[in-house]
Batch of 2 targets.
Target 1
Amino acid sequence: MTEIPKDHPRYLSLTLRKKISEYMKKGIVHETGLIAHGRGEAFDYLLGETTTQHAEEAEKTAAAALLLAKKPVISINGNVTALAAKECISLANCIPAKLEINLFHRTNSRVKKITKELHRMGAKEVYGQKTDAKIPGIQHDRALCSKKGIFSADVILVPLEDGDRTQALKNMGKKVIAIDLNPLSRTAKTADITIVDNIIRAIPNIEKWIYKLKKMDKKELKKIIQKWDNKKMLRETLIFISERLNSLRE
Ligand code: PTJ
């Protein structure tokens, strides 16, 4: 594949495209993952490709929820592996949380390849290879999960989700933290805490907040969560986008 010159104005964006495409050829990213990535890129463009004040607040609240959790789990799919495997492993270690592979387009081959890649990147334990439980109310393979992982988790971080599972996880009484650049998606609207930010910025930022909040007592952490209003944040993110677009008009 063509080498991307470092001084290209779209260097980071092009590098991520290259990564996604390479991981698709390796059989880790599903081919529709390329489409999902393109949708994400478009929303990131509208946001100015930076972490907004609302996203920063969501990342702080997510860190508080993960620190308060008894059984936190980070859900991993193909795109997440390509874009932020190392960062997810590092975050899981510092919370600490479990990592579980959960795929929409599930095949044994993809699960094996993603497991291998996570181990190569430093993960010790990876759940989701052998599934022994089902999330009720989902008809497709995303329902398949591990009893010791997602099934018994109290807080789940779901980056780049496809919709149905967030509601099903909430129906099970779990707290769901979503990372989704599209503030209009079903996932964004259903999650308890939605981080409208690119996963490549969001995961390291949550980790930054984990370190900042780690010494805080539980009461203070709970206050951060009680203050959070997800609907208000989504509304304000949409206002941010429209005001930004208006300001760019000539
Ligand atoms: O690996 P699998 O089989 O589990 O499949 C993964 C995909 C992503 C293909 C699957 O979950 C899917 O089809 O997802 P959707 O419905 O396209 O939703 C993905 C959401 O993630 C969209 O709302 C995108 O805007 C958003 N998104 C894409 N790239 C990023 C992103 N959000 C944050 N950071 C990104 N880099």
Target 2
Amino acid sequence: MTSPDPVVLVLFGARGDLARRMLFPSLYRLAAAGRLPDDYAVIGSGRTAPDSVDEFRDSIRDALAESVDDLDDDVVQKLLQRLDFQSSSADDGSELADTVRQAREKLGPDATTLIYLSVPPTAMESMIAMLGREGLADGARLVVEKPFGIDLQSSRALQETITSVADEDHIYRIDHFLGKEAVQNILALRFANGLLEPAWNATHVESVQIDVPETLGLEGRGSFYEATGCLRDMVSTHLCQVLGFVAMEPPATLEARDLREAKAAVFDAMRPLDPQRVVFGQFDGYRGEEDVDDDSQVETFVAAEAYVDNDRWRGVPFYLRTGKALADKRRTVTLTFRTPPSPFPGERPEPDELALDLTDTPVATLDVNVKRPGPELATERLSSRLELTPSDHADDSLAAYERLLLDVIRGDQTLFARSDEVDRLWQVCQPLLDNPPKVQPYEKGSWGPESAVKLPGDRGWRLPDQSDG
Ligand code: BG6
């Protein structure tokens, strides 16, 4: 494998939580696997500088020790040596521009600048404008963290600013769910299996659930959550992107252009969400959390019914659910199949269900009706588990941010959202921003408000049956 061209990675928000928990550990893993270019530099940035570069390096060493088992000291050392810090703000990025210039000069004319903006949506536009003024964005790849804006209008303004400094083919809108092996595996299951693809449509599928409950609460992110809420943090982004993979037509190829085109077509066909068919919840105790308003109406839970009005999916409800402080942490996509006319006596058989657990080592569970052993021709329900990770490759999987950082380095936009996708998803969600459903309280450790439990109808959500919750 030839080494990619040298890169200068500029990381805004380098002292923040995402950088410590995800980005630096991912860089470390890429370095340990020999996937980084031979020559690279990492420049951390943010409004407040550490006392010294050494202090910054030490803090990153600590962060790595917290996240990675069996750290290889040699790899850590080499990574830290390439790490620098230069403070900057939306008003002033001149010193940062100098530091980047020097780093590029050291790496030679082939060096590419990658700028990772791990900053809140409200700060994004002014930071990008600064990059433009300082010439930092020229020829650089810009990685933008979600949410992209906070509504349709702000996302369009952000898009205008961003395209005034960089071309669309240099913009990487990151949604880390698409970096997950298990999410990419949806494409393999669908498009490489003659058993599944012919049945993956409204003729055979009755409903789909995309269920991402979390047990975590706010984890000190009160001010982020107050500004963002669960709809923007999880639904218009992660859950909809997963829906895009579940619902897309077979792309002509797996190249960035075709795959993103197929996903964008799903969002184009999505019906704007109906506030009457969406439940917002807030866990008890949320208003007592740090940086949270005493009267906050911000939702920490969303359950929604969505539709994709195209030939493949017309009439099939997609139920999306996610929230904080719930009974279980899962990421599960469930397809419920229509029941055939059955000669078996008694009640109509239960529908077949295929549940894909999008865990690090993905698993599928297939619930089917089988013959109950004995002298009668009668059926019984059986749940079978399929492991979806080949055991001899289990160690080869990349963590989501690791994969996506590698793709930015390689210049591959396949797993990043295009601007028209983002625009359309805001259009789909905008009715909820204009007329938000009233937030319903729910107990921590529950499955959310009662009205959400009933949203998918009599069969309910699949998950409570499958866990202790
Ligand atoms: C992040 C959200 O993007 O995704 C968090 O900001 C959420 O609120 C997290 O907890 C979930 O990601 P994962 O990979 O842990 O399922």
